[in-house]
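Q: Second attempt. The first request was missing the SMILES, so the protein and adenosine-5'-triphosphate are both included now.
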Amino acid sequence: MEFLEVIHVSRSFGPVNALLEISFTVHRGELFGLIGPDGAGKTTLFRIVASLLLPDEGKVLLKGHDVAKDYKQVRRIIGYMPGRFSLYHDLTVEENLSFYATVFGTSLKESAAYVHRVYSPLIPFRKRLAGKLSGGMKQKLALSCALIHRPEFLVLDEPTTGVDAVSRKEFWEMLEELRDMGITILISTPYMDEAGLCDRVALIDKGKLLQTGSPSEIVRTFPAKLYVIRGENLYSLLGRLRKSPEVKYAFMFGREIHLVFRREPDDPARWLGPLTGTVDGTFSIDPLEPGMEDCFVELMGKKEPVDGEENV
Amino acid sequence: MAAHNTPVIDVKEMTKTFGSFVANDRLTFRVERGEIFGFLGANGAGKTTAVRILCGLSAPTSGQITVAGYDVWTQSEQIKRNIGYMSQRFSLYEDITVYENIRLFGGIYGLSRRQIRERAGELLGRLGLENQRDTLIASLPLGWRQKLAFSIAIIHRPGIVFLDEPTGGVDPITRRQFWDLIYETAQSLITVFVTTHYMDEAEYCDRLCVMDEGRIVAMDTPYRLKQQYGAQDMNEVFIKIARKEI
Ligand SMILES: Nc1ncnc2c1ncn2[C@@H]1O[C@H](COP(=O)(O)OP(=O)(O)OP(=O)(O)O)[C@@H](O)[C@H]1O
Ligand SMILES: [Mg+2]
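A: Got both inputs this time. The predicted holo structure:
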């Protein structure tokens, strides 16, 4: 029996098909990521998995339990952290946590070791009202609350949104520890570096499943040859690249531009020279191994014009 | 986005306390016209607190601060009219339509009906949202909402716009479109003051200020910060600063 089976799940809201015939499985002890653009249907699926919303068609089995029918058992197995969480703003940090502990018949003490990694930065502020925490601090508290009953299945909807870069790194180290303790994790994230840390991911867009696989499998299916341009003042170059007929698409990636050609020039370096309007050596162009973020841009970037530019 | 020598934000020894807790500790910095100024720091470092003071929404405890030439102590109303602000949480009213939001905020910013009509048309055209004019905000995807919120925040053509985590939770493609908008805005010499936890976005700023526990711990261009910390990218700089490895 698979740990989690999502079987032909469809759900619509009025005329909008939020989910269309979604099927995938998550193995026990897996760290599984759900990746897709805004409005792809991730939150709807999470709510169905967490037994908070019924599908129109299909079903979800968690350890063999139909989540729509056996929701009482299911809710004990799951720790769910919704994207828009429900902290009590007029309770203190510590009171929020004890509240969730009490609901699940456990205590702060019993779960201390379990939540420590996420909760410890908040300890100096434990008497502060949750409403007065910074955005990222609220996110950490919400996660601590989801962990408090030591669930064997964690469902986390964008838990690191608003969380700073260092805490994000520590958070993923913690997720890996939990996974190694045998906890199964279903997570969504807008950060593609995090997607790359999952054991397997499912890519969804407009309610449809596009692909599932390990990050390295996904990256291997990248259908084009990718180039990287390095240099200074890349933003002004980007505009010129996008107007060039040879270029299929070009995007900023931090201090680099990643580019896919429509018609690859024989000598990309020579081709680039006149576009940069500078002396040789200021800019470089080289082939690049794609990462998860490149795959996302390639798969999801097709449908929408990029601010006045032609379709990519 | 060259410096034009007249600071649009001038902050000297700005402090904000909540009871005995010091959220902003003697911050001193200037931002020039047309700059994209990035404000970085760990959760709770004090970014939102500072932004709210600079927007005239909360009073500092002490310090000399001018924004767009107005004093935060005595001219917070003028400040509010001469800046744009997109907050970390709330950006638009969700239960009314796109156009109603534009009309509402246009009104708050003191635009005439005709100006609102004209600018609404322009704005929707530029964002490709002409057909969403009567759509409820609640049914727009987050990324579109954020782009719309940004455009509305500058509908009165302010000299400065403050963006507090405008791309939090936004997908990789929409995030890049959002930064295209930021760049366009800065080209027209509107100063952009932006906070973010995405370190690739930090690279797109002209200058960065890094905060830690209420204090400014580093301030420079991304290029010089990377040099100074011997780092490949801003992510590495950020981690080195946070772990206090200097
Ligand atoms: N009204 C308040 N009363 C008490 N403490 C407050 C209040 N507002 C903010 N704080 C505290 O001030 C500190 C700074 O908060 P701020 O929201 O400025 O952080 P931030 O840098 O924006 O963090 P984040 O990246 O998480 O958004 C935090 O410790 C926060 O709890
Ligand atoms: Mg903040």
